[in-house]
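Both lines are given unchanged directly below:

***
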Amino acid sequence: MTKNLFPSNFMWGGATAANQFEGGWNEGGKGVSTADMCLAGSRTTPKKLTKTILEGEYYPSHNGIDFYHRYKEDIKLFAEMGFKIFRMSIAWTRIFPNGDDVHPNEEGLQFYDEVFDELLKYGIEPLVTISHYEYPYHLSETINCWESRKMIDHYTRFAETVMNRYKNKVKYWLTLNEINAVSLESAGYVNGGMLNGDEDVVMEMKIEKEKLYQALHYMLVASAKAVKLGHAINPNFVMGNMIAYITYYPFSCHPDDVLETQRIDREVNLIAGDVQVRGEYPQFALNFFERNGFNLDITEDDLVFLKQGTIDMFTFSYYFTATMSTQEDAGEATGNFIVEGNQNPYLETSEWGWQIDAKGLRYTLNQVYGRYQLPMMVVENGLGAMDKIEEDGSIHDNYRIAYIQEHIKEMGAAISEDGVDLIGYTPWGCIDLVSASTGEMDKRYGFIYVDLDNFGKGTFDRYKKDSFTWYKQVIESNGTNLDWK
């Protein structure tokens, strides 16, 4: 047992996304999403987009892990672990099947009413990401999603619809998942729904940088409008952003490496964060746009909305750190399909090439809180690994326990020693789900094992891993008992 480092009202829970675990892709009036058009890949191969649904091919999002039919069973398991909060997203195409529909789909709205009611029955707060890596594919085909200003109105109508519907059931809202990731060269389809000619490799689909930052601007305006709407709908709403925080270290103490690290931190992490917290573009962003010759469509009205729609809390994902250098021989690449940078020789690496850096989370919490002074949540964090199910149904995942254990220790230190206002922690994929980058099931994050393989074969039965029992103990002790046999 350790001393209590976490506040008594700290919100422990877990995180998921509709497109990776919900399934029911063509049930209940749901339309086709951008995620629904993707085939599975592997740990070395990005998932691929097909422009039409091909017979005989496996599309992982179509069934997910079947939360659509098993949500009561899953929520009961979350309650058994003691969850205080559960992060989930609303599938846009379950509410507006084409994205530009005149009226919402009542059957879809009713589904989420039932999910929220089930969570609240167990005293679990929903933490809802309004849009998480999933857009109506119809909008990709007709306006190329976030390449178009029209998306702002489509998104805000969707956001207003769900916030109005669930205003008495949901308090915590996140506008757009990992909003800054759209500026990364290979994330334009996954995070922005943008197509690029006839290319069909989603995670390697290259889109011009100017278009990506234009898409980011439209998303930032849409997010600000949603925040403003949310505050008007229910003043008790807590409106947050969601940043894919990629923490970079200089590869060496050479001043050029330090400046290169500062550059990428600004371009990847800080432009979106600064706008969503402060309501305006920082000068370094304006200089960056000018230096690169970006002629972005930014109107005076946009700037007003950005100022009016600042967030109440700052949330982010954290999985690994990377190093930056101007030197040619600065180590291996990060091991992530879309993230620039190199590996750190002082860190261990997961089976998927992501480096494990618990102390980096404490460093990141201090960096972010020092910059913004807002309440914070770590809404994604975890270890993707191969799990083996034993004949008796047990899964011994001490490696996952060790990973999360160390990250919790560093969060506790950030709170108690550094004064960071951290209010919640929702580890990613609290139940096994489909990988966002590759479409695999082998890359498992959960405390709950789902019997499903990379080809969609399996019983979908749920099994408790050792980490299930351990995390239950962590929550019961409010982070004071991290021990495991």
About this structure: The longest helix spans residues 209-233.
